[in-house]
Amino acid sequence: GENVEQHPSTLSVQEGDSAVIKCTYSDSASNYFPWYKQELGKRPQLIIDIRSNVGEKKDQRIAVTLNKTAKHFSLHITETQPEDSAVYFCAGQGSNTGKLIFGQGTTLQVKP
Amino acid sequence: DAGVTQSPTHLIKTRGQQVTLRCSPKSGHDTVSWYQQALGQGPQFIFQYYEEEERQRGNFPDRFSGHQFPNYSSELNVNALLLGDSALYLCASSLPGGGSYNEQFFGPGTRLTVL
Q: Which residues, 6+ apart, have CB-to-CB distance to A11 below 8 Å?
C-alpha cells in the first residue's frame, strides 16, 4: 500500500549547521511532495514543496531534492537558527488524488 | 482573508458518545480534507469532500462520517467513540478541484479527548 518513511525521527544540530531529513515513498504514482513544519500546539504549515517534473527546488535557506528513480526526497536546511526547531513532516500525493500520505515526522532541535 | 478555521478548539467526550467537528475553508477553496493526528505521529487522511460529496476515503471505519455544505464548510462526525479516537483532528482546504499539485492549508485543529 501507500507508505512514506521518514528519517531520522529526531535530529539535534548546533545553530549555523545544516540539517537534512530524508523520506522514501512506495507509490510510484506520487507526483507532489510537500514539507510541513509544525510547532508545538500549532497547525502544520507548508514550508516548501516539489513536483515530480523537478529534481530540486530552493527557497532561501531551505531546499528539497527529489530522486524519482529511487523514490526518495530530502529536505535541506542550511544555517539553522533556533526558530527552526519544530517537527517536520514530509508527505506524498498521488496523481488525481487529494490524499496526502505523511511521514512519521522529525523533531529538529537547533541548539543556540 | 481568514484562513482555515475549526471549532471547537478542544473537546472532551466519554466512550460511546458521538461528536461533531466543524471546519470552514480558506476563502476561494472548495475542497476540504480531514486528517487525524495522534500524539507524536504524522496526520492520517480520513476523507476528502468536494462538491458536497465524499470523493476519497482513507482507512477509517464507518463510524467516521462527514458532510460538506453548499458554502464549502464541512463537518466530521464520529460515532461510538473509542479511547483510541483521542487525537488532534485537522481540517485542510485546497483550491478548486482539490486534485494533485494543490497545496493544502491546514486549520488549527480540534483536540478531542475520549475518557
A: A19, A21, A106, A107, A108, A109
Q: How many CA atoms lie within 13 A of B67 on its CB side?
A: 9
Give the three-state DSSP class for B79.
Answer: coil
Judge whether A75 and A35 are in contact, CB under 8 Å.
Answer: yes
CB contact under 8 A, A32 and B100: yes
Average pLDDT, chain A: 94
A3 contacts on B by Cβ (under 8 Å):
none
Over residues B44-66, the pLDDT tens digits come to 999 999 989 998 899 999 999 99
Phi, psi dihedrals of residue A99, rounded to the nearest 5°: -85, 120
B101 touches chain A (CB under 8 A): yes
> What's the sign of the alpha-carbon dihedral A14, A15, A20, A21?
positive
Sheet strand arrangement including A4-7: A4-7, A19-25, A72-77, A62-67, A56-59
Q: Which three cell numbers stand for residue A55?
A: 529534481
Q: Which helix (H) or strand (E) holds B12?
A: strand B10-13
Point out which residues pair with A94 in neighbouring strands.
A30
Report DSSP letters for A38-69, one per residue.
Answer: E-TTS--EEEEEEETT-SEEEETTEEEEEETT
